[in-house]
Amino acid sequence: MATIRLGFRRQNFCLFKRSFLLLKLIAVVFAVLLFCEFLIYYLVIFRCNWPELKTPAYDGEQETLEPVLKAMFLADTHLLGEVRGHWLDKLRREWQMERAFQTALWLLQPEVVFILGDIFDEGKWSSSQAWADDVERFQKMFRHPHHVQLKVVAGNHDIGFHYQMSTYRIKRFEKVFNPERLFSWKGINFVMVNSVALEGDGCNICSEAEAELIEISHKLNCSREQEHHSSQCGDGQPLPRSAPVLLQHFPLYRRSDANCTGEDAAPPEERGTPFKERYDVLSREASQKLLWWLQPRLVLSGHTHSACEVLHGAGISELSVPSFSWRNRNNPSFIMGSMTPTEYALSKCYLPFENTVLITYCGAAGFLVVLILVHFGFLDLPFLFGCQLLRKFKTV
Fold this sequence. Notes:
Blueprint lengths: L1 H44 L11 E3 L2 E3 L4 E6 L12 H22 L3 E5 L11 H14 L7 E5 L2 H4 L7 H10 L5 E4 L2 E5 L11 H22 L19 E3 L20 H4 L12 H11 L3 E4 L6 E5 L3 E5 L12 E7 L4 E7 L3 H22 L6 H14 L1
Parallel strand pairs: 3-4, 4-5, 7-8, 8-9, 9-11
Antiparallel strand pairs: 1-2, 3-12, 6-7, 10-11, 12-13
Helix pairs in contact: 1-2, 1-9
Organism: Hipposideros armiger (Great Himalayan leaf-nosed bat)
Membrane topology: Multi-pass membrane protein
GO cellular component, one term: endomembrane system
């Protein structure tokens, strides 16, 4: 009878040990998943702060506080489609972008978000059903409160390069995203350009795009020259007297990224590669037209997937915004801008590095393997080995 009771006790003890091991494994897996898929975004983005403007605004002799607009700029999300999109790639990278965006909205609370093109990866050839599916995923990932405005410009992957671009694809894109080219808020003018249509070959779409920009240029000139009541400017609502911020997908013309620096610039071996006009950057002619027509105080662009700051003409700064997706960069980021009608300040907010998350998962997997081997006696922990040595010395 005592032998049977002892057997039951041993059996119960073994079951308890196995259950305890299972609980430990579940706890470790849950903790790692919680950290890598949720907490790491809060820990990293929490360190980002809105930049402070250097100089206050003055009205005559009195200092006045101009309202500051908090704007967030990101680019090249490249949501994968049905042709080239592997399900695991979609799951991993799109979850990363969704968590990063939602965390940034909650922690930083921007008032407006601009996405500088290439929202989709296969918009240039996707079918109507595939396009609808991609749009639905985008709207879920980049959902936002009603008080936050989301503005989007078209990229070559959304509507195709010039030789692929069509009125149908442009209308399809503009049906989802507001087609407005001029957006003003808190006294700040933003001009959103379809840079794919600035080919300069006189095609119908290109001619219409240039006509829109010339009309916007006329409105901006009227606001600068205070000619609102003249016959040339008409009686419409005047624009704020503020040099615009130019937003587009293709960068303005530059020879290469040779002068670009920073940890999120292009790799050193690629920086000296010459850019191809109308493919990597806008043509010289189109760039000069934009600067002449709009006279912007700041230009933000995407397309290259890497960061770069360039000065054009009379000190007009252009900032190329890196890709927001792990698919294109190990260290994605976005730009935070504090803006008034006369001043602006920009700072960069990095997202979690992909290799940090992968290393964390690999380390956790290794720890679980060690835990299992120790439990079943295939491996001794160092402190257990030390205890055994002490016992041997005591018996000697």
